[in-house]
């Protein structure tokens, strides 16, 4: 009986060892495939980073080195298919000159969806990489806007979801502090329209001339701010005040996201 029992156990143990070995090999192979997939994605991300840097330079703008992330997994199957789920591009300190004045976007995030690029384009670097939709979100610093208004001591910020202004003003020989808010809209050419209304100043003399001078000041700082050309043909759709700056939302369709080669 003992010999028969030992004979039966030996094949079972051998079968378990084979099964464990196969599982280990599959795990190792899976890990290697994941590593290879991420390495390939990293190569693509570096290539797109270079293209984005060229695209920004073509617009006459400057920024810190962009960060690029290729979304979707696995990456290699997307390469073979020639279609990528998402490419995210992040840029900081985007600067451009608008009519001689510097406009700064501390942050610009671009999200490209359903990106098409042939395997030959990826391999050779020639040809277009086209995104079906591109959405961009960025901020304009209040310091940049205040510099464009060019009024000594004027500061801008957000108050209850609106663009707020505080500034010292001389009215009828008195130094007063003006406070108020502005309507912010997007113009037909993509410019940001600032319209300051209902400004108030504590201690304002109760005479018509004082109110007229305050209204004149409101008109003088109500301007259209032309934004720099955004990369990837992005068109501004919405602008709204946030604590960190004026938030800009832009989008575009069927856009090449690589510079012409």
Give a quick set of tags describing it.
261 residues; alpha+beta; 5-stranded antiparallel β-sheet
Give your account of this protein's structure:
- The protein has 261 residues and is of the alpha+beta class.
- It folds into 2 domains: 28-143 and 248-256; 145-226, no CATH class.
- It is 35% helix and 41% strand.
- The strands form 2 sheets. The chain has a 6-stranded antiparallel beta sheet with strand order 1-2-3-4-11-10.
- Strand 5 and strand 6 (162-171) form a beta hairpin.
Helix-strand layout with pairing:
Layout: H1 2-58, E1 67-71, H2 75-81, E2 83-98, E3 101-116, H3 119-124, E4 130-140, H4 142-149, E5 155-159, E6 162-171, E7 174-186, E8 192-201, H5 208-220, E9 224-225, E10 235-242, E11 245-256
Pfam family, one: LmeA
InterPro entries: DUF2993 (IPR021373)
Organism: Micromonospora endolithica
Compose a concise summary of this entry.
By secondary structure, this protein is α+β, with helices and mostly antiparallel strands. It has five helices and eleven strands; from the N terminus they run αβαββαβαββββαβββ.
Structural class call reads: alpha+beta
CA-based shape:
elongated
Tell me the number of strands: 11
Radius of gyration: 29 Å
Number of domains: 2
Overall residue-averaged pLDDT value = 76
Major beta sheet, specifics? 6 strands, antiparallel
Count of alpha/pi helices: 5
